[in-house]
């Protein structure tokens, strides 16, 4: 992503603010109390070690796996037009990704540690998984640039939908409808879909990096605008640290850019250690463990999962796509025929070939409406390109 060597700062150019472009110099800058207003910018890469696929990898990414399903096109799962007609694929994913299913990573806890030390000015995240919140970062410190599962509302009248009812719907595998009976529109988590605007919060805070004295960018390809421009909002002499599997964007082009090209969890551990915070960080992260949350003692090492992170990620992707496949029941010889009754939100499911309608395992409490036009719709130009940019590549379907 944007590895333009010519744009990288010449190694002979001295840093303006740091003593050197090294992790130790960043740690010294923090220890000296010169970093009191830190902005953190994150993406899918900080959650992959939690087991959440990054959607784009050729083999393990969710996109590659969605492509083998009979969705009209892979990105339909995040298309507001398709969702109106058939919310099942999205809700199948939502049941898996809904907060509570994954443990935050130590990188999420590192962000919380910055907050607890009073150093976090703002976290800008592209992630929708809410793991920063789960790690303890408070709502007012987070800008969820692409929305998240933290709130939900009716897609028609925008009335907020209570969290408890949403949890119940997710638990019961049903699709929630607006609490206002006269509306009865579909409810959706406030994740930015194709055709939807970024949250106002993003635009209200986007100049904040200009006030920061340190910027830490982690786990993002910086390929999605307008988020990708955020690091450029930092002042020229403001140190910027990239902890990522690869160099991205224009990170590395300034005199005080420090590139830590490595795994996020390893990188934050090293930074915490250099700051003298490693034990504190490990303790904070341990509090996010399921056993700690339920007040149980830590299980024996023998109980730890034996699979590698890659194997666990592959298992997760397989599980997700299998469930979507089952719920959709859109196999070659099992075309689902969904009739759209937009006016009264009533629909019925028929089988195209044998007249028997397969029962969707995901019940709506009201039957699910479908928009056959939406199913044929081409990907829209706006909206979710900035959320799932790879989905705008043509599906192989
Ligand atoms: P991306 O474009 O997939 O880039 C991820 C970046 O992280 C890449 O540069 C990888 O090299 C790097 N990376 C992956 N794993 C690690 C790791 N363990 N350590 C270090 N680096 C790693 O993801 P972006 O977030 O930049 O793309 C924007 C999209 C992805 C956002 O709109 C998200 O909504 C969307 N997304 C979010 C989630 C989530 O909420 N967890 C999951 C998948 C996709």
TrEMBL record:
Q: Where is the composition biased (Basic and acidic residues)?
A: 300-314, 336-354, 372-384
One annotated GO molecular function: histone deacetylase activity, NAD-dependent
Keywords for this protein: Metal-binding, NAD, Transferase, Zinc
Identify one Pfam family in the record. SIR2
The residue ranges of the Deacetylase sirtuin-type domain are 16-278
Instruction: Name the positions where Zn(2+) binds.
Output: 154, 157, 178, 183
Compositional bias, Polar residues, is annotated for 361-370
What is written in the cofactor note of this entry? Binds 1 zinc ion per subunit.
Q: Where is this region: Disordered?
A: 291-314, 335-397
> Which taxonomic lineage is given here?
Eukaryota, Fungi, Dikarya, Ascomycota, Pezizomycotina
The entry's active site is: 146
UniProt xrefs under PANTHER family: NAD-DEPENDENT PROTEIN DEACETYLASE SIRTUIN-2, NAD-DEPENDENT PROTEIN DEACYLASE SIRTUIN-5, MITOCHONDRIAL-RELATED
Its recorded name reads NAD-dependent protein deacetylase
Q: Which organism is it from?
A: Didymosphaeria variabile
């Amino acid at each position: 992503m944007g590895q333009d060597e010519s744009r990288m700062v010449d190694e002979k150019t001295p840093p303006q603010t740091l003593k050197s472009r090294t992790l130790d110099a960043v740690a010294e800058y923090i220890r000296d109390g010169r970093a009191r207003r830190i902005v953190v910018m994150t993406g899918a890469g900080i959650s992959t070690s939690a087991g959440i696929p990054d959607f784009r990898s050729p083999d393990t990414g969710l996109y590659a796996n969605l492509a083998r399903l009979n969705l009209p096109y892979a990105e339909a799962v995040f298309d507001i037009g398709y969702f109106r007609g058939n919310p099942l694929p999205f809700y199948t994913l939502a049941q898996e990704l809904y907060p509570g299913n994954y443990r935050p990573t130590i990188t999420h806890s590192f962000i919380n540690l910055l907050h607890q030390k009073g150093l976090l000015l703002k976290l800008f995240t592209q992630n929708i998984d809410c793991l920063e919140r789960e790690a303890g970062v408070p709502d007012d410190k987070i800008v969820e640039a692409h929305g998240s599962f933290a709130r939900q509302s009716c897609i028609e009248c925008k009335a907020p939908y209570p969290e408890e009812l949403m949890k119940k719907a997710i638990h019961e595998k049903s699709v929630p409808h607006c609490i206002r009976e006269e509306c009865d529109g579909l409810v959706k988590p406030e994740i930015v879909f194709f055709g939807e605007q970024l949250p106002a919060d993003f635009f209200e805070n986007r100049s904040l990096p200009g006030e920061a004295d340190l910027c830490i960018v982690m786990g993002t390809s910086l390929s999605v605008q307008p988020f990708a421009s955020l690091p450029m909002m930092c002042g020229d002499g403001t140190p910027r640290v990239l902890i990522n599997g690869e160099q991205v964007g224009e990170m590395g082009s300034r005199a005080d850019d420090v590139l830590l090209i490595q795994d996020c969890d390893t990188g934050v551990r090293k930074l915490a250690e250099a700051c003298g915070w490693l034990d504190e960080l490990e303790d904070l992260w341990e509090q996010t463990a399921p056993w700690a949350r339920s007040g149980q003692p830590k299980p024996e090492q023998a109980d730890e999962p034996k699979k590698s992170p890659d194997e666990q990620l592959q298992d997760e992707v397989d599980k997700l796509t299998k469930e979507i496949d089952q719920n959709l029941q859109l196999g070659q010889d099992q075309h689902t025929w969904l009739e759209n009754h937009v006016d009264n939100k009533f629909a019925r499911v028929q089988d195209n070939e044998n007249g028997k309608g397969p029962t969707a395992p995901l019940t709506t409490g009201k039957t699910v409406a479908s928009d056959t036009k939406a199913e044929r719709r081409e990907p829209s130009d706006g909206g979710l390109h900035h959320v799932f940019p790879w989905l705008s590549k043509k599906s192989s379907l």
